[in-house]
Amino acid sequence: MHSRRWVPIEERATWPSRSNLNRSELALYGLHLDELNEDTANYRIIVRNYWSLLSPLIFSDHPKRPGDEDPSPPYNMLRNVLDMNARYGGLNAALLEARKSVWVMNVVPTTGPKYLPLILDRGYFGVLHDWCEAFPTYPRTYDMVHAEGLLSLESSQHWRCTMLDIFTEIDRMLRPEGWIIIRDTALLIDSARVLTRRLKWEARVIEIESNNDERLLICQKPFFKRQPS
Q1: How many domains is the chain partitioned into structurally?
Q2: DSSP string of 160-174?
């Protein structure tokens, strides 16, 4: 007996229209079309805002969002992106729609809803992973790590491992001068901000105008040069 997800290859939509699942396909995952459309619209805004923040200007003594008079981030600044709590793959979809030349690894945490089949059916790469374990990748693989709601998800599981354990693994996977973007509750972001000092990341907490209960933590891993002896 075939799975309800099984579709003959000749009947599958071609890329990129394949990423836009229809109502009947979404029903297999208990989702409505409105939910996916809302997620997609939200990430369109997020990608536009995030991209403009990836500048050392935000770490200055007088931080500001880069303006039109400031140099734009290099087009190829990010190549490999890790989304630690991918949900429906919305970040991946928005980056592709914005024509960003990136490759995204979508990770579905074992502690959250199991949407990995949905991500795969949209034509994206993805894996299921327990973030209290080491991620199977080489060190310094990724240019950016994104985590929305991951800290809340892990805290709801009574912190099977510490926040520092998770951040240490992020540090291992991230290349020097790579970026970390974490969005979560204000309380958890405050705790995360303290840990960034131990890892020597540059960090800045940014308020979210549309949500007073959440904060954005933007970090950059420094490039340490060997001091002459």
Answers
A1: 1
A2: SS-HHHHHHHHHHHE
- Structural domain including 184 reads 22-61+77-220
Q: What is the identity of the amino acid at 17? A: S
- Residue 227's pLDDT is what? 65
DSSP string, 6-19: ---GGGSPPTTGGG
pLDDT score at 65:
54
Average pLDDT for consecutive 10-residue bins of the chain (229 residues)? 60 73 87 93 91 72 55 71 97 93 96 94 95 97 97 92 97 96 97 96 90 92 76
Burial class (CB in 10 A: 0-12, 13-18, 19+), 119: buried
Instruction: Tell me the Ramachandran region of residue 121: left when phi exceeds 0, alpha when psi lies from -120 to 50, beta otherwise.
Output: alpha
pTM over 0.85: yes
Residues 6+ apart with CB under 8 A from 65: 52, 53, 58
Buried-state track 82-118, b at ≥16 Cβ within 10 A, e below 16? bbbbbbbbbbbbbbbeeebebebbbbbbeebeebbeb
CATH number of the domain to which 86 belongs = 3.40.50.150
